[in-house]
Amino acid sequence: MSIPPSKSELPRRLDARKLAQREQKLSGTVPLAQLERLKAAVESVEEGVQADLEFARDLHGHFTVTGHLHGAVTLLCQRCLQPMPVPVEGEFHWGIVWSEERGKALPKDLDPVIQDSDELELYEVLEDEILLNLPMVAYHDEECVASEHFHAGEESAGEDEQRENPFKVLEQLKGSSGKS
Ligand SMILES: [Zn+2]
Fold first, then answer.
1. DSSP notation for 66-114
2. In angstroms, what is the span from residue 144 Cα to ligand 1's centroid?
3. Digit-coded pLDDT (tens) for 38-87
4. Cα 11 to Cα 89: distance, rounded to the nearest angstrom
5. Which is more confident, 42 or 6?
6. Residues with Cβ < 8 Å from 131, sequence gap 6 or more?
7. pLDDT value at residue 168
8. Which residues are placed with Cβ below 5 angstroms of ligand 1, an ion?
C-alpha cells in the first residue's frame, strides 16, 4: 500500500513509539512558517520541506523511522554573489530513544533521535535533518562572473543564449579583460 504524494502538513508533534508499533507511513510538509532556523541559515526559503516517513520496529525491537526529505532553498553563488536556487535532499534512518544514554547503545546505522516526552518534536527533528544536508557553498555551473553584466536587463533571454552559445561567453571574457 502506498500513500500518494500529498502537500498536506505533517503533524508538528507525534508519538513515534505508537506510530512505530502501527508501522505507520506519513507523507507531508513542514510548513514554511515553521522553518525559522533554516531561513536563518540560507539566503531564502521558498517552500516548505516535503518529507516521507516510515515508522517501524526492527528485529531487535528498536523504534525506527526511515525516510527522506526534500526542499529548495536559495543560496548565494560564491563566485558572483547572485542568488541561486539549490535543491536539498536528505535520507535518514533514525532510532527513537528516550534518553541520550539509550541513544549510545543503538547500532551504528541508526541515528539516535530523542523523544523525551509523550511526543516527538517532528518539525524540529526534520529541520535538523535538512540543516545537516545543506551544501556548505554553492556555485553556478557556468562561468557566471564574466556574464553577469551580460544578462542584466534581459535576464532570462540572456541566460538561454549563454547556455546555447559558449562562444558568446568566451567573447565576453575577452571583452571584459579591457574593462572600462
Ligand atoms: Zn554565480
1. EEEEEEEEEEEBTTT--EEEEEEEEEEEEEEESSHHHHHTS-TTSEEEE
2. 4
3. 999 999 998 999 999 999 999 999 999 999 999 999 999 999 999 999 99
4. 20
5. 42
6. 37, 38, 41
7. 53
8. 77, 79-80, 140, 144
- Please say if the pLDDT value at position 148 is more than 90: no
Using one digit for the tens of pLDDT, what is the confidence trace for 110-123? 999 999 899 999 99
Residue whose grid cell is 527513537: 96
28/42 Cα distance (integer angstroms): 22
Q: Report phi then psi at 160, rounded to 5.
A: -65, -45
Tell me the CA–centroid distance for residue 84 and ligand 1, in Å. Answer: 8
Cα 90 to its chain centre, rounded Å, is 6
> Cα of 40 to ligand 1 centre, how many Å?
21
**Cross-strand partners of 73:** 45, 86
- Say how many Å lie between the CA of residue 35 and the centre of ligand 1: 26
Question: DSSP state, 42?
Answer: S
